[in-house]
Design brief:
mainly alpha; two-stranded antiparallel sheet
Length: 368
């Protein structure tokens, strides 16, 4: 495909290699950093490789994918190799396919979401089988074991206790001595074991809550971001480079789909109501005591929340463009709003109030 040359711009290729490969080399060289490599490959490499392909070409994108596979292989062994290979291969392969076939943009978004979600489901099922359907407990035990083997074990436990993340019974509190105004302390073996068990339980609950969020919400956010950001960054970077060189006639075609302006993205009225009902139902069901209902509620909530996050981001972009906000703030401010959890509520408000006026009011029915 002409839209994906091996090298589009050498400068972008170098930048992509530094940002996407170097961190994984650092994580691999430092003991105990495997979790950071996993998080980087899970959240950064898919979007980064698509942007790298659009701006720098296939070489930096493939280098980023290979670095991700090797990093997880080094940290997690054979399991890490095949998990990263399936996950990253499905995403980038789908990215190339939808551009090759010129798939409609929002259908391509659906394909990218599935390319994220299905490999994660496969990995989750494989891990559940590996740990005899005790994955959450195994994760808690692994973290507790890692802390127990650390040379700064007691300091870490004390930090968890000081921040209120774990608690002790009144009896055990008497077996923990902390000298005020100093860094000196002492704890009994009973206190140490109770803290480790508490941390294991804390991690178990956190993983149980995180799994549906990663498998559903992260898949929707990352799947759409791969297409949106790669197309926008590719266009802006090529425009910048060609304006410097003055060789616009030699520009290679960009990997783009027929994407509508981001500021005009919105849910149709009927679909918006369904998403809103899913968000409300999921909010209540995910705090249910029944595991099956809690999982169903979490899936509903995170799917609807991810869609509303995109709607809120589009509303913010629409408002910033109308006010003439500089482009850098059109990137920074949505990231800040996302970090503090505001974007989905902006999406709800926009869906109810129709702030941008994009949805026409229903026409009144004529009397017969």
């Amino acid at each position: 495909m002409k839209a994906f040359p091996m090298i589009r711009f050498a400068s972008a290729a170098v930048i992509a290699a530094v940002l996407l490969v170097l961190p994984l080399i650092i994580f691999g060289a430092m003991p105990g950093m495997e979790i950071y490599a996993v998080l980087f490959v899970l959240f950064v490499t898919p979007i980064g490789s698509c942007i790298a392909a659009s701006c720098g070409g296939m070489v930096p994108a493939l280098a980023a994918l290979m670095a991700g596979v090797l990093a997880l292989g080094k940290g997690l062994g054979t399991d890490g190799l095949w998990m990263a290979g399936v996950y990253l291969g499905a995403i980038f392969g789908t990215y190339l396919f939808v551009h090759w076939k010129k798939v409609d943009f929002f259908k391509a978004c659906g394909a990218m979401i599935l390319a994220h979600m299905l490999p994660l489901c496969l990995v989750f099922y494989s891990l559940q089988m590996r740990f005899d359907h005790q994955l959450y407990q195994a994760a808690g035990q692994a973290v507790a074991g890692f802390i127990d083997a650390s040379p700064v074990r007691d300091e870490m436990l004390l930090q968890f206790y000081s921040t209120g993340m774990i608690r002790l019974t009144e009896t055990l509190q008497n077996q923990l001595i902390i000298l005020p105004g100093t860094s000196l302390f002492a704890m009994s073996d009973a206190v140490r074991q109770d803290m480790l068990l508490s941390i294991g339980a804390l991690v178990q609950d956190a993983v149980e809550l995180m799994i549906p969020q990663v498998m559903v919400q992260q898949s929707i956010l990352s799947g759409v971001a791969c297409l949106l950001l790669s197309q926008r960054f590719g266009f802006l970077y090529q425009k910048q480079q060609l304006s410097k060189s003055g060789k616009a006639e030699s520009a290679l075609p960009l990997p783009e789909l027929d994407m509508p302006p981001f500021s005009l993205w919105h849910l149709p009225r009927g679909l918006g109501w369904k998403v809103g009902l899913a968000w409300v139902a999921g909010s209540f069901l995910r705090i249910n005591d029944q595991p099956a209902l809690m999982m169903a509620g979490a899936v509903l909530y995170h799917a609807a929340n991810a869609i509303l996050i995109w709607q809120g981001a589009a509303l913010l972009n629409f408002t910033q463009k109308a006010k003439g906000t500089r482009r850098v703030w059109r990137v920074v401010l949505p990231c800040v709003f996302f970090a503090v959890g505001i974007l989905s509520y902006l999406g709800i408000i926009d869906q109810i109030v129709n702030l941008r006026g994009l949805r026409k009011p229903p026409e009144p029915k004529e009397d017969i």
